[in-house]
From TrEMBL:
Its EC number is 3.1.3.12. It catalyses: alpha,alpha-trehalose 6-phosphate + H2O = alpha,alpha-trehalose + phosphate. Pfam families: Trehalose_PPase. Removes the phosphate from trehalose 6-phosphate to produce free trehalose. Pathway: Glycan biosynthesis; trehalose biosynthesis. Transmembrane segments: none annotated. It comes from Panicum virgatum (Blackwell switchgrass). GO terms for molecular function: trehalose-phosphatase activity. This is Trehalose 6-phosphate phosphatase. It is an enzyme of class 3 (hydrolase).
């Protein structure tokens, strides 16, 4: 029989989008629902954020966490690794972009420096990627923000990968690895014979995970969006409050199984 496993993006999925990325908290009610979900289903959070940061927001240790767009995976109930190897599967961790951390830190330092006079620009170090937030920048400053991005790409060329999120540019380690790869990796590690994955996410980077589930026919994507848009997801929910209601329904269905 198929076993449902759950993958959840964080920002815009569990927490509403807010102007300050450091204040993207989930509600107490959402945390209670997530605790139930984590007990009843194998559950993973897959986020663009640093893994430690997203764990600080969620604080449920029974879940798997994949930070840095899936480039920093830690499976639940495993001891913290002190290994420097990118693959330390005995400790339940997988960090395929480890050799790029110095470059990412250099991008972070450069961005901090070159954006210090751009009001509203915020730089977030996500370990294997760096976010340049422009949500709070003025229209007039946007050409400066774009110039900063162009300069970094010109300097590093193939040494860095750029993706776009919601009012954010994300500079990533240049490896072929995204949220879709992370989902496949975690699916493989859970030891579930016949998994059926439900992945819920709101952002462009979640499309990689939707695509993988569609291709492999072993799960579905659910897009969180108020507007209709092109997606590889099968279904959609409007916002984090609908995500919470959906998770509550899953919990009560499972309890009555
Ligand atoms: O894959 P995700 O977990 O969705 O990560 C994508 C980015 O999410 C965060 O930024 C977004 O949410 C912020 C808080 O609501 C918002 O202020 C920002 O405008 C959004 O882009 C996170 O802070 C970024 O580092 C991630 O790249």
């Amino acid at each position: 029989m198929k076993e449902i496993i759950i993958f959840l993006d964080y920002d815009g999925t569990l927490s509403p989008i807010v102007t300050d990325p450091d204040k993207a908290y989930i509600s107490d009610e959402m945390r209670e629902v997530l605790k139930d979900v984590a007990v009843l289903f194998k559950t993973s959070i897959v986020s663009g954020r640093a893994r430690a940061k997203v764990f600080d927001f969620v604080r449920i240790k029974e879940m798997n966490y994949a930070g840095s767009h899936g480039m920093d995976i830690k499976l639940a109930s495993t001891t913290e690794s002190t290994s420097t190897s990118e693959i330390d599967e005995d400790c339940g961790s997988y960090q395929p972009a480890q050799r790029h951390t110095a470059m990412i830190s250099r991008v972070f330092d450069t961005l901090l420096h070159v954006t210090k006079d751009i009001k509203g620009a915020k730089i977030e170090h996500n370990i294997f990627c760096v976010s340049l937030h422009y949500r709070n920048c003025s229209e007039e400053d946007m050409p400066r923000v774009q110039k900063v991005v162009e300069n970094i790409l010109e300097e590093l060329k193939d040494g860095v990968k750029l993706t776009n999120g919601k009012m954010v540019y994300e500079f990533r380690a240049p490896i072929v690895w995204n949220k879709g790869h992370a989902v496949q990796y975690i699916q493989g590690k859970l030891g579930v014979e016949d998994p059926f994955s439900i992945y819920i996410g709101d952002d462009q980077t979640d499309e990689d995970a939707f695509q993988v589930l569609r291709e492999r026919k072993n799960g579905i994507g659910i897009l969180v969006s108020e507007a209709s848009r092109t997606t590889r997801a099968f279904f959609s929910l409007r916002d984090p409050s609908q995500v919470m209601e959906f998770l509550k329904m899953l919990v009560s269905w499972k309890r009555n199984c």
